[in-house]
Every structure is written in structure tokens, then in C-alpha cells.
């Protein structure tokens, strides 16, 4: 996350698995519905009243852009916007 380094989402582009961290704390993990259209990857997960939506554009050798958000009962809990996905390495405990 360009604006807040404690907000991180890790995801697997082959399986749809994800871990979503806000302020360094894991707030959601699971496997979402994976859609791949060219270089655009979308992961959508709905569990009860929680929704996680992740979108990544992997064009230009990974220098693409990504966004992600998590909602509970329609209220936005955490949002991530990354404008340079090249060389990202993230950990969250």
C-alpha cells in the first residue's frame, strides 16, 4: 500500500487464496472467486456480511496497479491502493 505500509493484501493468482492485513493485523483470509481476463486478476470473497474484493493489473512486467477493499455489512473497513506493484515484498503477522 503506497499510503499506509501497515495495509497489505497477499494473494495467489492461481488459487484465489488471500490474506488481508489492516494496520499490520490480519483481518481476513480465505479463498475468493478468481477471475482472470488477460492481465487483470480479480478475487471476490463473500462470507456472511463480509466482502473482500481484490483487483490487480499485472501488465508491464508487474509494474501494474492494484486495489483492494474489505467491507462488513456494507461499511468499508479497510482499503488499499497500490500504484506500483513491481518488486513488492510483504509480510504480516
List its salient traits.
93 residues, 4% helix, mainly beta, three-stranded antiparallel β-sheet, 1 helix, five-stranded antiparallel β-sheet
Task: Give a verbal description of the structure.
This protein is mainly beta and 93 residues long. It has one helix spanning 59-62, and strands at 8-11, 17-22, 25-31, 33-37, 40-47, 50-57, 66-72, 75-82. Strands 4-5-6-7-8 form a five-stranded antiparallel beta sheet, with no helix packed on it. A three-stranded antiparallel beta sheet has the order 1-2-3, with no helix packed on it. Strand 2 and strand 3 form a beta hairpin. The longest helix is centred in the middle third of the chain and has 4 residues, at 59-62. It is globular, with a radius of gyration of 12 Å. The mean pLDDT is 83.
Amino acid at each position: 500500500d503506497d499510503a499506509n505500509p501497515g495495509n497489505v493484501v497477499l494473494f495467489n493468482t492461481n488459487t484465489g487464496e488471500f490474506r488481508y492485513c489492516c494496520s499490520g493485523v490480519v483481518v481476513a483470509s480465505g479463498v475468493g472467486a478468481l477471475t482472470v481476463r488477460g492481465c487483470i486478476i480479480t478475487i471476490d470473497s463473500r462470507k456472511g456480511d463480509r466482502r473482500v474484493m481484490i483487483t490487480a493489473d499485472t501488465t508491464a512486467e508487474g509494474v501494474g496497479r492494484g486495489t483492494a477493499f474489505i467491507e462488513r455489512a456494507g461499511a468499508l473497513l479497510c482499503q488499499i491502493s497500490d500504484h506500483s506493484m513491481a518488486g513488492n515484498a510483504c509480510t504480516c503477522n
